[in-house]
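User: I'm new to structure prediction. If I give you an amino acid sequence, what do you actually give back? Let's try with this one:
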Amino acid sequence: MSLRDNLDPGNHHSDIEIMTALEKLQLWSYFLDTVSSSFHDDRAGQVLAQPLSFFPPLSVGHSQLLSLTRALLHSSHHARLNRKPMILLDEPAANLDAEFEDLCSKIIQEEFTEKGFTVCMITHSMKDLRQRVRRGKDVVVRLRDGGVEVVEDV
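Assistant: Good question. You get back a string of structure tokens that encode the predicted 3D arrangement of the chain. For your 154 residues, that looks like this:
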């Protein structure tokens, strides 16, 4: 499966849109650096056409960022169709260093929350919750010891 097929299975985005999404998550240079400089004219197309196995193995953190890139592209496609699907994120900042965790939080805020998507996120990070929860608008639910509790103050 190519990088393009992995990120945009419905083929809804141009090479430039996919490249821009990868740049937002600071992944474009990771993939671009792997492709030989012999591709002069259409480097974006050549990079996106490569199978994922062509690239060095992704770290767990890079895999997280790649998944967020896929969600970003998927949500932008739906936004063009005036739809706002719920975005489900399971530990989106897991295995990321502080710099990439901040980047991940920024992308979720700017590309999902501020654009009116409902974000349902599983996280163990109190930092994540404190940065993201808006009083009077968001609900935090804690699952603990087989029970469910709504948390009023994070």
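You can read the tokens as a compact description of the fold. Here is one thing that stands out. Strands lie at 87-90, 119-122, 140-144, 147-151.
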